[in-house]
């Protein structure tokens, strides 16, 4: 186990806010010189704390206007059925998120598509054809009230746990 100190947390918060920040600017923002700052970032990457850096795009500008949450139930919640479903969903680019759930549905998907026709195509040509799917319920997001990617990190530090 390793503990991240206040400086590590400050580095992570700065990187969550702007992943394109230069090492020099990052070091300056957390009161370090560039080499120790770089070494801390590298160590956190090696520990798996930093998974990857991405660029967030604006869906509406790119024509992706329909954000849908889809609850999927399977005929049986057995390992083979779960694996088949997860493999099939993992190949679909319009599936932004997929969670194995407790409660009424087995999975919750967040799907992003340009229009209703594309959603119909996804559901009829892909989702319903996955072996073991027994029920599909969709809910349309009318407005995104909050969306964030930055994780809430305690400023005093974090003891890492195994994944």
Helix and strand arrangement:
Layout: E1 3-4, H1 6-17, H2 23-29, H3 34-46, E2 66-74, H4 79-90, E3 95-100, E4 107-113, H5 116-125, E5 133-140, E6 158-159
Antiparallel strand pairs: 1-6, 2-4, 2-5, 3-4
Would you mind describing this structure in some detail?
With about 160 residues, the protein is an alpha+beta fold. It has two domains: about 5-55, Orthogonal Bundle (Arc Repressor Mutant, subunit A); about 65-140, Alpha-Beta Plaits. The chain contains five helices and six strands; from the N terminus they run βαααβαββαββ. The chain has helices at about 5-15, 25-30, 35-45, 80-90, 115-125; strands at about 5, 65-75, 95-100, 105-115, 135-140, 160. The strands form two sheets. A four-stranded antiparallel sheet has the order 3-4-2-5. The chain has a two-stranded antiparallel sheet with strand order 1-6. A hairpin with a 6-residue loop joins β3 and β4 (about 105-115). α2 crosses α3. The longest helix has 13 residues, at about 35-45. It is elongated and about 55 Å long. Keywords: DNA-binding, Transcription, Transcription regulation. Pfam families: AsnC_trans_reg, HTH_24.
């Amino acid at each position: 186990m390793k503990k991240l100190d206040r400086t590590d947390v400050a580095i992570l918060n700065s990187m969550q806010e702007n992943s394109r920040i230069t090492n020099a600017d990052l070091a300056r923002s957390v009161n370090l010189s560039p080499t120790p700052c770089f070494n801390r970032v590298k160590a956190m990457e090696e520990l798996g704390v930093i998974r990857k850096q991405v660029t967030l795009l604006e869906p509406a500008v790119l024509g992706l206007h329909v954000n849908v949450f889809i609850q999927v139930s399977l005929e049986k919640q057995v390992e083979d059925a779960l694996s088949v479903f997860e493999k099939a969903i993992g190949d679909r680019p319009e599936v932004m998120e997929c969670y194995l759930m407790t409660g009424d549905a087995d999975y919750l998907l967040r799907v992003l598509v340009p229009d209703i026709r594309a959603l119909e195509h996804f559901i009829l040509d892909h989702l319903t054809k996955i072996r073991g799917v027994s029920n599909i319920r969709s809910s349309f997001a009318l407005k995104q009230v909050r969306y964030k990617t930055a994780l809430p990190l305690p400023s005093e530090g974090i003891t890492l746990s195994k994944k």
